[in-house]
Automatic annotation (TrEMBL):
Molecular function, one GO term: phosphoglycolate phosphatase activity
Species of the source: Permianibacter aggregans
Record protein name field: Putative hydrolase of the HAD superfamily
Signal peptide extent: none
Any single GO CC term annotated in Swiss-Prot or TrEMBL for this entry: cytosol
Keyword field: Hydrolase, Metal-binding
BP-aspect Gene Ontology terms: DNA repair
SUPFAM superfamilies in the cross-refs: HAD-like
Listed InterPro entries: HAD-like_hydrolase_sf, HAD-like_sf, HAD-SF_hydro_IA, HAD_sf
A Pfam family reported for this protein in Swiss-Prot or TrEMBL: Hydrolase
């Protein structure tokens, strides 16, 4: 952890009287990022090589370059874009491993706690609507949210100021009284730049990987700690 991120999980305290709205990322925040990492880094290269009859090692190298070129852009998250680009049905391939979709520990308990405390919860994800629908079918997350927003609805990824401007215009929320939880530092920096008052970073988005440095943002790896005060 960098020196600037001095607040640790053992000292984490949230003044819930200053928060009306809670915004959640989906993949890596509420849901285990293992599904997505496994799909893009393992399942997709394997299936691409099988379908297109190419060497898997060469496919992995080619895909890595394609992904890097689109990182942080809306296309990077777009099922339709990658289906066209790779001549594959990405949506169908995701369904093949749908059993790997899972909540992160205590995510549902925290969502229920927030509802009990009359906080308005929104899902704000860069995931394409087709990916979102697959995960909703597996998790029934829709029960917990006022609205579920895909950045594709607005034409900007969450890393872009345009997303936050469109969010406020569409939902009329006061971002200064919102808590936003995400596993992407670039997204959190965009949220801060656009006036989100309270920010938390997920240090362990993929259960199979060790925790990461969350830079200048307070890390919250265990949602139970947020239910201890309020």
């Amino acid at each position: 952890m960098k020196d600037s991120a001095v607040t640790t999980e053992t000292t984490l305290a949230i003044d819930w009287s200053q928060i009306d709205t809670v915004l959640f990322d989906m993949d890596g925040t509420l849901l285990d990022l293992h599904f997505d990492n496994f799909f893009w880094l393992d399942h997709l290269p394997q299936r691409y090589a099988e379908i297109h009859r190419q060497d898997e090692a060469e496919v992995r190298e080619k895909l890595a370059k394609k992904f890097a070129a689109k990182r942080g852009q809306l296309d990077w998250y777009c099922v339709d874009y990658w289906s066209r680009e790779l001549a594959l049905n990405i949506e169908a391939l995701k369904h093949e491993i749908g059993d790997k979709i899972a909540f992160r520990p205590f995510a549902t308990e925290f969502l229920l706690w927030l509802k009990h405390h009359d906080k308005r919860c929104y899902l704000a994800t860069n995931a394409h609507r087709k990916s979102l629908e697959l995960k909703l079918a597996r998790t029934a997350m829709h029960d917990h949210f006022v609205a579920m927003i895909s950045s594709h609805d607005y034409g900007y990824p969450k890393e872009h100021d345009g997303f936050w401007q469109a969010l406020v215009q569409a939902h009329g929320m006061d971002l200064s009284r919102a808590l936003f939880v995400d596993d992407s530092l670039d997204v959190l920096r965009a949220a801060k730049r656009n006036g989100v008052g309270h920010l938390l970073a997920i240090p362990n988005p993929d259960s199979r990987h060790p925790s990461r440095d969350t830079g200048e943002f307070i890390a919250i790896g265990d949602f139970r700690l947020l239910m201890q005060n309020g």
